[in-house]
Amino acid sequence: MLTESKRNSGNASKFQTEVEPGRVLTMPTDGTGVAVLDPWLEPFTGALRHRYALYQKYKKMIKESGGGYENFTKGYDYFGFHVQKDNSVLYREWAPNATGASLIGEFSELTEKDNWDHGANVMKKDDYGSFSVVVPPKSDGSVAIPHNSKVKISLVMPNSGERADRLPAWSKRVVQDLNVNPNYEAVFWNPSKQYVFKNKQPPKPKSIRVYEAHVGISTSEYRVGTYKEFTQNILPRISNLGYNTIQLMAVMEHAYYASFGYQVTSFFASSSRYGDPEDLKELIDTAHGLGITVLLDVVHSHASKNVHDGLNMFDGTDHMYFHGGSKGNHDLWDSRLFNYGAYEPLRFLLSNLRYWMEEFQFDGFRFDGVTSILYKHHGMGYGFSGDYREYFNESVDEEGVMYLMLANDMLHQLYPNVITIAEDVSGMPALCRPVPEGGVGFDYRLAMAVPDMWIKMLKDQSDDEWKMGEVIHTLTNRRHLEKNIVYAESHDQALVGDKTLAFWLMDKEMYDFMSKLSPNTPIIDRGIALHKMIRLITHSLGGEGYLNFEGNEFGHPEWLDFPRVGNNSSFHHARRQWKIVDDPLLRYKYLNEWDRAMQLAEAAYGWLSSHQAYVSLKHEGDKVVSYERAGLVFIFNFHTTQSFTDYRIGVEAPGEYKLVLDTDSSIFMGHNRIDENGSWFTTPEPWNDRSNYIHVYIPCRTAIVLTTKQNLKWSQKDMV
Q1: What is the tens place of the pLDDT at every residue in 462-500?
Q2: DSSP summary character for residue 322
Q3: How far is CA 373 from CA 313, 352, 385, 600, in A?
Q4: Of these residues, 229, 285, 368, 676, which one is catalytic?
């Protein structure tokens, strides 16, 4: 955590910062401070200095011409629709290459051809390419534009002189009627009664346990779910499970539902297919009342190429918000790429972040597609090896890096408790170090190699071929002092074409043998056991935060597939089957209880916010792993058949040990081979580089968690 900078009396070009509790380092102020933390960055201090100077240049520009972060990032207070004190409506839009503009809508008078009158509200253009118009109030003093009525900006295109209607770029609500037209329509959002927040935002969690959720699929019915249903039905589930953070996907409006929210068309509009903005505010406020932090899955890496209801070709050119020509196209995603170095696109994006924080009281963001922002090749067809030269060469998009530095700096300056998470596959050094040190400023990065490892093992290897050393290496191979959010699987693994862990483990037997009335087949028994073990070792060893995609906690069957032409617009796989986990006769409830036990145990002991684990054992032949973290001893036996009696485990703390968690307990559909009331006593002799050892019985495909009697704060017995 960055502390207040303190100038050294002997050298004004350095500052002191606390990089971890009790450890203060002196760093240069030129953006090369991260090389003090990581000497391997020393050969690249020139590149670090250069990118930091670019960030400083833009920050200075924002301060001098934009009024600093406070003013510059409130573009939504300047552009778009604003009701004035006299009930007139001021509307502004930036469209620099258009030669003329009019505001049209359902409030407009109709022409003889029953079209909205383009001549009634002609807009004036200023020297900076912005158009504006004031719509006076009605004769009775009321607002002339009715709430929820359709509006558009009609632009005169350059060169051709033809008119083209566009949705206002700063629209706060857009709606779709598929019975009429697949394109979205903007509406003037001015409700007479706006939602009033009742609850304070919760403190920033020390240990972040993220429940990744999509409102639309959060119903069991064959349709799109709503904000209100999520508030009433899903928030209590999340709270009961022990998660303290929700990451909401697909909230920014997107015309194509099957894009999973990643083809954004209207950046300031919450998706209307789930309800109205006030409903979303209620959802977030209710979550805050439950002590749950809420993050938005924000998409600034690209935008939909839609013209009629998106930003593409807004003023008749391809280079307004985006780069022109091929540089502005993402060939793999078939979308448009922002010009992060241009003034108005920069204001648009930074204001977008501020808007979601201010208007909806989100607590932070998961930034999607960060790799695409960081590199000119956008990660397409590029395999990162970890060689530092891959992160400091001509393929790095310096303006993209600069934008992310500005975004993180702005957010952390204005909102000290904000959380920002980067989805990056490249492993760029210093991505999660503070900007003053020369980092990009994120709080966390997603540990994307971990789910890939589990899928590869389940797909390509038998259980006997699992390499404990490789598992431990992948789970612990992360940059020191850069926090990771780890996960065994996310929405990516649930999508059609892939399989969830549960489906890889149990596949078709899930259809016939997940009932308690049916036999516990070897495949189901193995699948239940490994599902629990994989999640526990991932949770406790792999990072400083944990993430789960909704439904995966209880082994949701099958895959996720949104309604589209290829599946006859079916909702069959675009929903969550909550009934199966609620059914006491089905075995899904055991996985759900295990997930809850993990979250409650972490809440009690805080291993995610503790130092990385000390791994004392990874035995390839026995398939046994042991490590210590946060005063707990984690012991795993991945062997397919061999159980071990009096297995020696090295521990540091002496004394009597008690059971905290046991995957083999019957409350989690285990075989009850461990005495949960038992005690394990240390012998004061070194073992595996630990000062003491204990002897344990560790059955096959079982994991147990122990702690000293004096450190026992919670155990699985507290769940009953």
Answers
A1: 999 999 999 999 999 999 999 999 999 988 887 766 789
A2: B
A3: 21, 17, 19, 37
A4: 368
